[in-house]
# Entry
Amino acid sequence: MDNIDNKKTIFQPLTAEEWKIRRLSDLLIKAEISLSRVERYYRRLLIKVMMMLGALILMGLLMLFM
# Structure
């Protein structure tokens, strides 16, 4: 019977340490989400820049052979 009393149930309030851990894990999850958004943005930007550079190189080659 003593083991059941020691286990935390859903309705017991969390300790300060547990709240700290929960807040930190939520912050980490939010940081990961925002980081993936930033990575996606810069990946798209890099692709656009590469396409522009490729177009400029092709135009330069065309001008060279005309």
User: Anything to note?
Assistant: Residues 16-65 form the longest helix (50 residues). The chain has a mean pLDDT of 86.
